[in-house]
Prior knowledge:
Number of strands: 0
Radius of gyration: 13 Å
Strand content: under 5%
Number of domains: 1
Shape: globular
Distance between the termini: 26 Å
Largest sheet: none
Amino acid sequence: xxxxxxxxxxxxxxxxxxxxxxxxxxxxxxxxxxxxxxxxxxxxxxxxxxxxxxxxxxxxxxxxxxxxxxxxxxxxxxxxxx
Length: 82
């Protein structure tokens, strides 16, 4: 996931960060898994399912998702920073 510009991947990371405490509290992820960006991958897969329906995702599908929606994610990130 880190191959993409900070704008798209950063938006997913920022979004995931807002849920990290909850993810750990409910036992979904450990701190180590958060460092490995498991939270970001989960949320990317959820977004992929919203746009494309539920299907098995793979690295290429998630990479395509980041590329296709980079501008949208970047704009949302800028608007949150205000």
